[in-house]
Amino acid sequence: MLTPAIASRLKRRARGVGIVELLVGLALGLFVVSGGLLLLAGFTDENRRLLLETRLTQDLRAASDLVTRDLRRAGYWDAAHSGVWYAGGPTVPPQNPYSRLSGSACDDTSALNQTTTTEPSLAICFAIQASGDSNATVDANEQFGFDLDGGVIYLVVDGAARQPLTDPKTIFVSELVITPSSQVLDASSFCKSGCTGSSCPQVVVREYEVLIKGHVPGDSSVSRFLRSNVRIRNDHFGGSCPA
Length: 243
What we know:
The chain has one domain (45-238). It is rod-shaped, with a radius of gyration of 35 Å. The chain has two helices and eleven strands. The strands form three sheets. A five-stranded antiparallel beta sheet has the order 1-2-3-4-5, covered by helices on one side. It has a three-stranded antiparallel beta sheet with strand order 6-9-10, covered by helices on one side. The protein has a three-stranded antiparallel beta sheet with strand order 7-8-11, with no helix packed on it. By secondary structure, it is α+β, with helices and mostly antiparallel strands. The N and C termini lie far apart (137 Å).
């Protein structure tokens, strides 16, 4: 049988946690839980940002590849061999009628009226000979280009029809800058009697830097840019030898 003193001690030990200890425990628990939630939120945000940056980079690379691939083909002429001078051939070989480029959109009236672009531009228009076409004239269906409008890069076909190259739901393109870096090579030495002046033959080797910059729609903090260089395969030949 328990004595009164022993029973009293056992009763004091079994009385439980006091209100102060309970509040302290709850505060510590809330502190630990809030710290865990902050870590989880930070991890989730970083993971979301990484996914957005990855998708943004992929979209930029895909758009850049399409622009440089088509631009590389600018000036295609299936009769390019006829423009090469050879002994016994014509004194002035025909020039490539598709070699001109314009630093403006194809719907501009001045498009394809200049030899080559000389300044950075937000659009470009060029010509590619259509299959089976032999009239040596740049028709509407032989004009192609790229321009930026409302955060979307458009591919221009048939001189006017535009097709979106980027998806505005996944990327907002803020900049499209096409910068030329042409090299002019003097070809006057090929003239039989020599040649002097600005109208003498010259070959323009054309290369372009394409800069595309964009960000996630609605979140300009997630932005990326991509630079690529493309050399046009078809050099532009200008001028002529004196008669």
